[in-house]
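ERR on first pass: missing label on line 2. Operator R.T. fixed the label and resubmitted. Corrected input:
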Amino acid sequence: GNSVTQMEGPVTLSEEAFLTINCTYTATGYPSLFWYVQYPGEGLQLLLKATKADDKGSNKGFEATYRKETTSFHLEKGSVQVSDSAVYFCALSPYNQGGKLIFGQGTELSVKP
Amino acid sequence: EPEVTQTPSHQVTQMGQEVILRCVPISNHLYFYWYRQILGQKVEFLVSFYNNEISEKSEIFDDQFSVERPDGSNFTLKIRSTKLEDSAMYFCASRYSGTGGAGQPQHFGDGTRLSIL
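pass 2 clean. output:
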């Protein structure tokens, strides 16, 4: 079946530190991959996406590369800010299944000044 | 920027009562979804809706649940007889159907927190 596994949180970093949040997936075929972010009290916002192998999604300094050989889509940012504190969700949309999203469990990031 | 809106933001209901959660998707979107997030757990897919019918539903979406698009703008989730375990945050999402298929991102509302007493 289809599933997404993320690293456990919470992750606590100091401002300007390097961020990596690991995400691996299991899927048949060629899923699309997404990172969503949830700020406190808000809904899920798309952060970035990749739709095929070796695609790199990027937005607001965050990046993730679709690695089919390792079935991974790790999220990275070179220098985090306090405003990046949120919960980050990795998700996949299975190929040819109407676009539903399957989410990982979420990783809470806390950035301290 | 257009957004998905959900009402109410918080709904408190007695166990066994019916509840309707409302969503207004983005106007030119054609695929609609409901998800739920039980406190501390992952976001789970409930149902997808396209062309005025359910296209897929999860095993969570049993006979107590139904969805409807009663007019050209609203998309509702009804729980017929609520249980304590239905307490969760419910998210509505919509997606534009164009080139890119499932690679088109879903846009989420801020959610309705449903509390069953």
